[in-house]
Amino acid sequence: MASCNPSCCDGNFEEADKAKRCSVLDSCMPLPLPEEVLNEIVAKAKDYALLHGAGMRYRDKYDADTLYFAPFFLLPSAFPRREFNRVIKLQPIVNILMHRIAHDHEFLKNALEKTIQVDSFTARLWNIYTTVREEGIAQEVSLGLVRSDVMLTQCQAGCCQLCQTPPYVTCHQVEVNTIASGFGHMGPISGAIHRYVLGELRKPELLHHLPENDALAGLCGGMISAWEAYKNPKAVIMFLIEDITYNICDQRFHEYEIRRQRPDIHVIRRNLTEIAERGHLTSDKRLIIDGDEVAVIYFRAGYEPGHYHSEKEWDARLSMERSLAIKSPSIQYHLAGTKKVQQEIAGPGVLKKFLSESEAELVGQLFTGLYTLDRTAEGDRAVQMGIENPDRFVLKPQREGGGNNIYGAEIKEVLERLKDSQEREAYILMDRIRPPIQQNYLVRPHQQVSLAEVVSELGIFGVVLGTSSEIFESSYSGHMLRTKLSSVNEGGVAAGLGALDSVFLFD
Ligand code: ADP
Ligand code: MG
Asked: How far apart, in whole angstroms, are the C-alpha atoms of residue 467 and residue 472?
């Protein structure tokens, strides 16, 4: 398996990227495929996807009775085994880090005090957090179902401890999600599509390159552990959902998995408005809705301002946070996942406050440059860097869910407009990761299949359950791979620019 040959571009990866001369990973088999082979395997793969629940409802043609297959790449994407093993081994430590951050009031306060002056959404979350904190947190146990997203980044040969041998790439973290970390079903099912495809292409000898992926079982196992910790066999698990769920397979399969593991546990689905209208707290803070007591709340909504239509939905969020239900995430976990907190975590010496020296070193290797835009000398320097070299960075507001970040020339425009205003403190600046390119076939409903140049982002799931003083469990719980056209900044699967994928490990 070839990889970037660092000498071919003298380490000038950005220029090489533009010229597409460098940083190419070989695909898992020679491409292109002969046309008749391609047509036949695509038809088979589409059917496999539809018949195994790799489906979505589309935003532009919403119809609750219809599923399309989710866009996917025909072949698994090459990913170096060394890096894959490194990041999955680190995940239990990343979980513990996020758990400890979430429970460190002073750290959260210092990290977010400026952000909440200018970002009204984060400020509302902060107010809920301080309200429940002052009242006394009813439920000490939190369930983290986190997903650490990483991309491969190009190194120069031997430039760091991690790339002494080819391929000269290493993983850098894009973000850690602490709320609504999706694709626990889509991740494993993408691997299943690729096993089937490689089998049908008569390449069984390649199957051992596809790693096991038990994301769905792991995440649902986490919810079941939390349900057990609540200690009421009659109470239910509630999925907090959006008004319309487009990514329905990635939620229903979680329900079916919980049913498979524990037929005695019931799952209900409610949105914020329904909780506001039909839910209530008992005097001892049990959350009751439609006659059911809620043991665990699994958030698949509530992470963006649009989910809160009015004060009513904010009241519902407050009631949930006040309740005895075990939340994934609790409000402090949600805050720990903000972009601002993550930028602060990457600051000098911070990891050592939360992890042992050796753990801090390993986790630190995942970070790329993250810069404060606070109105300080340090922030001024970052503003200047962003204006002078916008292509080297990504500008991020405090939002989740894709499509909010700012890239390229627009970074310069935004920073020039905001540089003298407090509003700049709502953003952080981050080094732009330039992953190596490879080729793959993008398969989308009603569209011609095309061979495209693509880049991938690996999501590593983790489950962590515990209180402020004790962690009961912390584990790696499977993974997912999303791949997008190398020409786009962000590749949302529902937006059609990104698609499901799985990893093909190579040595
Ligand atoms: P969100 O919370 O919206 O998912 P992310 O920080 O994960 O925010 O960014 C969304 C997408 O933008 C990522 O999936 C990735 O494709 C791209 N992206 C984010 N940060 C970087 C970065 N530092 N370098 C390159 N691409 C990035
Ligand atoms: Mg993301």
From this structure: 8
Residue 251 and residue 275 share a domain: yes
Separation between Cα atoms, residue 139 and residue 293, nearest integer Å: 14
- In this structure, which residue's CA is closest to atom 20 in ligand 1? 174
pLDDT tens for residues 471-489?
999 999 999 999 999 988 8
Residue nearest to atom 23 of ligand 1 (CA): 432
243 and 381 share one domain = no
Question: In angstroms, how far is CA 11 from the centroid of its own chain?
Answer: 29
Q: What does the alpha-carbon distance between residue 296 and residue 405 come to, in Å, rounded to a whole number?
A: 32
Write down the H helix ranges in 169-298: 186-200, 215-230, 249-261, 272-278
The predicted pLDDT at position 290 comes to 98
Q: Work out how many domains the chain is built from and give that number.
A: 2
Going from the Cα of 404 to the center of ligand 1, the distance in angstroms, rounded, reads 9
443 assigned to some structural domain:
no
385 in the same domain as 238: no
Residue 33 sits in the same domain as residue 141? yes
Could you tell me which residues come within 8 angstroms of residue 447 by beta carbon, excluding any fewer than 6 positions away?
none
Residue of the nearest CA to atom 9 in ligand 1?
402
Confidence check: pLDDT of 17 > 60: no
* Owning domain of residue 38: 6-369+453-506
Percent of the chain with pLDDT over 70: 92
pLDDT at 13: 46
Whether the model clears a pTM of 0.70, i.e. scores above it, the answer is yes
Taking the C-alpha atoms of residue 109 and residue 113, their distance in angstroms, rounded to an integer, is: 6
- Name the least confident of 4-8, 175-179, 365-369: 4-8
Q: Is residue 436 part of a domain?
A: no
Q: Are residues 300 and 408 in the same domain?
A: no
Ligand 1 in reach of 405 Cβ (< 6 A): yes
For residue 406, the domain's CATH number is 3.30.1490.50
- State the ligand closest to the CA atom of 433: 1
Shared-domain flag, residues 63 and 148:
yes
